[in-house]
Amino acid sequence: MKIADLVELRRQGWLELERMCDSLQSIKYPFYKNGSMVSRFSALYRAACTDLAMSEQYQLPPATVEYLHRLVGRAHSQLYRSRRFPTQKWVHYIGVIAPQSIFRDPCVKVAFVVFFGLFTLSAILAWSEGSFPGYAERVLGAAQIEGMEKSFAKPLAGNFNQYVTMSGFYIQHNTSIGLQCFALGPLILPSLCALAYNGVVLGATFGYMTRSEVEQGDVFFQFVTAHGVFELTAIALSAAAGLRLGVGLFATGGLQRIESFKLNAERALPIIMTSVILFFMAAFTEGFLSPSPLPYFVKASFAIFSSGLLMVYFVVLGYPRPELSHELATSEDNPWRTIGAGYAAR
């Protein structure tokens, strides 16, 4: 084949690739949704790369080789260019999709009932020493009670270095509790047992320290009031996210087990994401505000503000809206797309 005939044969593909490069420069996210465009552009790009690599064997004119160099470089930049951060999409997901998903998820309801139900019951039993003697001692143990009383025997005081150190410790400690509940989630029953255990132990701790004869109770509540809202909510959410994974394994809804697991893992993302954020907020509060010598009024006000903030996020923003039913069912606006919407719509 003559060189002129070869160039003419390939020219149409080069020109089409050049036109696509021109059009893609005006599109914000060129390869985000249009799969056929990606496929065609990739095929033309590979063909142009092959032509450039074989240009010496084809003995193409220098001007044509230079043109191919520019075209391949331009197409490469379009194909592999980094996307801008989808701020609007994330704001919509965090402010609308996530609270709606959490509010509707039955696994969240189960986790909250188990944890806070047992927490409240255990706190009442531990506080009512006259009606239920020895309950707190049996749940917590004499050594743990003695350690708590010793820890909160002195008024709170600290320095900045101590606050930073303790903040790091609480991030590790709080996250380990959440990870334990989350990791056991696919097995369902062990996760519920871990959640119930934490609810009973924490409730007994609060109930015991509430007793009028326990002098260290004032210092204890000076310490736990500010961060308790974030921490307790995060524990329940982490268990709920794990339960959602377990549901995906055992209640497939007609899907293959791996497909069901992927779908439920995607649905668990807003739950575990919110849990992680709350754990970090609780840890920094516990490291800086809780041990500080600030008046109890300040810490109680922060706890009330935190409770109101969570109520607005989970209840007000999460209250079901009929117009979002399809979007929540298919997770089409999820920035972490892991599977096609077709699976979710089945």
Write structural notes for this entry.
The protein has helices at 3-24, 35-53, 55-58, 62-80, 87-104, 106-127, 135-140, 142-151, 160-183, 189-210, 217-250, 257-289, 296-316, 325-330, 341-345. It is mainly α. The chain folds into two domains: 3-80, no CATH class; 88-345, no CATH class. The protein is elongated. The two termini are 53 Å apart. The model is unreliable at 330-346 (pLDDT under 50).
Helical run tally: 15
SS-based structural class? mainly alpha
Q: In this structure, how is the largest beta sheet organized?
A: none
Strand content: under 5%
**Share of residues in helices:** over 70%
Mean pLDDT: 80
Order of SSEs: HHHHHHHHHHHHHHH
Report Rg: 29 Å
> Unreliable segments (pLDDT under 50, ≥5 consecutive)?
330-346
**What is the terminal-to-terminal distance?**
53 Å
When the domains are counted, the total is: 2
Silhouette: elongated
The tally of beta strands, per DSSP, is 0
Q: Which keywords apply here?
A:
single chain; 346 residues; mainly alpha
Task: Please outline what is shown here.
With 346 residues, the protein is mainly α. Helices cover 77% and strands 0% of the residues.
Write the layout of secondary structure elements.
Elements: H1 3-24, H2 35-53, H3 55-58, H4 62-80, H5 87-104, H6 106-127, H7 135-140, H8 142-151, H9 160-183, H10 189-210, H11 217-250, H12 257-289, H13 296-316, H14 325-330, H15 341-345
